[in-house]
Amino acid sequence: MAHSATYRSLLLLCIVGSLICASSAQTCRSQNFANKNFQTCVDLPVLNAFLHWTYFPSNGTVDIAYRATPSVAGGWVAWAINPTGTRMLGSQAIVGYLVSGTVNVITTSVNSYTPSMQNGSLSFTVSNLAGESSGNDIILFATLSLPSNSSTLNQVWQSGPMSGTTHSPHSTTGANVQSMRTLDLLSGQSTSTGGGDSKTRRKN
Fold first, then answer.
1. Alpha-carbon span 59 to 21, nearest angstrom
2. What are the CA-CA distances from residue 189 to residues 8, 20, 147, 198, 204 (Å)?
3. What is the pTM assigned to this prediction?
4. Could you tell me the CATH number of the domain that includes residue 120?
5. How many domains does the chain divide into?
6. pLDDT digits 0-9 by tens, 47-105
7. Where in the sequence is the domain holding 114, given as residue range(s)?
8. Has residue 171 been placed in a domain?
9. How far is CA 105 from the centre of its chain?
């Protein structure tokens, strides 16, 4: 009987371990969106985040979907382009958070280390803003008119807690200070500006 109980315990541990490994091995290519398709995606190196996009060089726009798990339950997520630098200051951000079970999406300029996080215009045109949730993840959709029709972007992404309806500051250690990359929309190459490696994947 003791051997049987030990065997069952080991079997349960193996099953749980395999499920955890399968979850952690999630990639952007396993993600799909209803009525939306994207040509390329990248597994961002920190904050359990993924970026999908289709670039239109003829008119200098890009359709994006940003998917991430908030760092704490009920928290906010954000993805941004910085037209003037590689870090947070100057970033033009799309922010999503849950309100009564529905994803609310705003745009905000990050002009200080204590930004207002209030809804406002960005330095470039953004359209087709939308958001949805999937499990614990928040997904943000947008069409961006790229500054100077540049196919190379300085991207920054973040996640932090909410305090009621107020965005609380994100952590200033660990992954939250590594979440920045330079992205070439044409080649899909993603270059470190302080974060870890990421993996670009063609969707088709």
1. 42
2. 47, 29, 19, 9, 17
3. 0.80
4. 2.60.40.1210
5. 1
6. 999 999 999 999 999 999 999 999 998 899 999 999 988 888 889 999 999 988 899 99
7. 38-182
8. yes
9. 13
